[in-house]
Amino acid sequence: MRLSALILSLLAFVPASAWCGTVDFTTLPVQTTSQLILPGLTITGSGTIWVGSGLGVVGGDEDYLVDGAEWIEFTFTGAPATGVSYWVGQARNLDGDIQVGERFIEAFDAVANSLGTAVQFGAGSYPVSSLFNNVPLSRFRLTADVDGALISSLTYDMSTVPEPSSLGFAALGGLGLALFRRRRPAGLRR
Q1: What average pLDDT does the structure give for the chain?
Q2: What pTM does this model have?
């Protein structure tokens, strides 16, 4: 009984797993799927997701782009994400205006409140977190105007800041260790 109490006490101090890095969609196997599940991340779309030389949605003007009012949503699972940015490897001007690869980014805070919408266009690296005052994000949605964009990669950092309930478990763990130490038989003390 005491050993199991000790193990449970120690487990209270183990931090939740986190993920930090970049997902390179150009290196994933070519596939179509209704949702793509990766470490700390679930990706859904307005249609079937296409993975190949990047990330897109099947349909629209071109099967491998996010275009024609299609959308892709990135949901961070386990914890909100910070430092979020993405890379557009290819952008197309499909509506004939002067902007190439126009898209709208809507971000949501840790409790799923919308933080608003921002417009981005072109190819290259694009921040998401800094557009929304670096508030930790639970998810964000990229919606194409008529133009197209191929998402090559996504960078994010899953926060491991302890929640109040985790701090309570840590306190209980400390108390458990103290009681275990205090209740040892006299012959086992040094």
Answers
A1: 81
A2: 0.75
